């Protein structure tokens, strides 16, 4: 996975574990910290289960936020899976083409049955069929709905993968950002809405949530007043600005729902569909006294380069958005 050099946006979220369907609130960011409350004691594994069954039960307990004791094993069938993905292809996943002995395990919880596939030891566990959303997926879905003013049923989870990030920044950091060089377990969750994909990186305990689909970076430096501004827009609707001359250590962060009308949002996504990756420059000529350097990087999915008129519109949009963000 290529490291994406962006600014860390840490979003601490607090949701109640019993909420069946998180709803957007009036705050800009739905808290995610405390997705998995630390238990006062760790339940002992069910000793009458095989290692593979224990692994499947533990996975479902994590997804549903239930004690393992509330999950029962309906059946376990020995199977030879056709590949390293246990017969379940996921988008972007490479599967070894080798027979893998394992089990098909049917579990029951809350009156519903769930199928899991494992290898013999239980070190690999995959859920078959449509997986119920875990707390992290629900919270991220609710956050995106709030950011973009969408209904929850307009958003789908394309994938939710357990990963080990290579650093404490979850591989989302600026080049000059100091990240602890330690393996950090977490998830990559990819959502889809209105034909666009939105990627989030999340630490295992949900304490750090970072959007990872960059849309626009605008910078302004120099000039008579000595500007030193940077604004980063993520496709998922988070907008962050910072000023290197500010006494505040942290920048300002808001979302599209706070900053843009529905018409303005639609125009922005139209640009994303139309324009390709573009590096634009509206700086004063070199050598000008009190020269101002203004640049804009646009991460579009389209095939067209912005015309001079389009570039001017993009710069005006960015400057106006920056003003709104800092009002």
Mean pLDDT: 80
Tell me the fraction of residues in β-strands, as a range: 25-35%
Total number of β-strand segments? 14
User: Uncertain segments of ≥5 residues (pLDDT<50)?
Assistant: 1-44
Q: What percent of residues adopt helix (DSSP H or I)?
A: 10-25%
What oligomeric state is this?
single chain
How far do the termini sit from each other? 37 Å
Helix-strand string: HEEEEHEEEEEEEEHHEEH
Computed CA radius of gyration, to the nearest angstrom: 23 Å
* Class derived from helix and strand content: alpha+beta
Strand order, main sheet: write it out: 12-11-10-9-14-13
Largest sheet: 6 strands, antiparallel
Overview of the molecule:
This protein has 327 residues and is of the alpha+beta class. The chain has a domain at 214-325. The chain is built from five helices and 14 strands. The chain has helices spanning 51-64, 135-148, 256-259, 262-274, 308-325, and strands spanning 72-81, 100-109, 112-119, 125-127, 156-165, 184-193, 196-203, 209-211, 214-222, 227-234, 238-243, 252-255, 278-281, 292-298. The longest helix has 18 residues, at 308-325. The chain starts with 50 loop residues before the first helix and ends with a helix.
Quick rundown:
By secondary structure, the chain is an alpha+beta fold.
Spell out the key features of this protein:
19% helix; disordered N terminus; six-stranded antiparallel β-sheet; four-stranded antiparallel β-sheet; single chain; 5 helices; 327 residues; alpha+beta
């Amino acid at each position: 996975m290529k490291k994406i050099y962006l600014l860390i946006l840490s979003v601490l979220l607090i949701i109640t574990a019993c909420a069946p369907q998180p709803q957007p609130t009036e705050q800009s960011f739905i808290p995610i910290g405390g997705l998995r409350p630390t238990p006062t004691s760790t339940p002992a594994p069910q000793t009458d289960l095989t290692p593979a069954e224990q692994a499947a039960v533990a996975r479902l307990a994590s997804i549903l936020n239930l004690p393992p004791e509330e999950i029962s094993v309906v059946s376990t069938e020995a199977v030879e899976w056709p590949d390293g993905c246990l017969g379940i292809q996921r988008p972007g996943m490479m599967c070894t083409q080798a027979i893998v002995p394992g089990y098909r395990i049917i579990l029951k919880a809350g009156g519903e049955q769930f199928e899991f596939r494992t290898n013999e030891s239980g070190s690999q566990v995959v859920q078959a069929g449509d997986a119920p959303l875990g707390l992290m997926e629900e919270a991220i879905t609710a956050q995106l709905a709030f950011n973009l003013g969408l209904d929850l049923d307009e958003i789908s989870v394309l994938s939710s993968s357990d990963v080990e990030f290579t650093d404490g920044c979850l591989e989302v950091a600026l080049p000059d950002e100091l990240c602890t060089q330690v393996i950090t377990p977490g998830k990559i969750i990819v959502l889809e809405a209105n034909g666009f994909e939105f990627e989030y990186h999340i630490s295992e305990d949900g304490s750090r949530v970072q959007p990872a689909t960059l849309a626009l970076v605008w910078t302004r430096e120099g000039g008579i007043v000595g500007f030193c501004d940077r604004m980063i827009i993520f496709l998922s609707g988070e907008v962050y600005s910072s000023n290197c001359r500010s006494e505040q250590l942290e920048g300002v962060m808001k979302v599209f729902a706070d900053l843009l009308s529905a018409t303005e949002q639609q125009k922005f996504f139209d640009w994303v569909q139309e324009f390709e990756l573009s590096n634009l420059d509206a700086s004063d000529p070199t050598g000008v006294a009190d020269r101002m350097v203004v640049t804009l990087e646009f991460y579009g999915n389209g095939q067209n380069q912005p015309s001079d008129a389009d570039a001017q519109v993009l710069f005006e949009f960015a400057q106006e958005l920056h003003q709104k963000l800092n009002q």
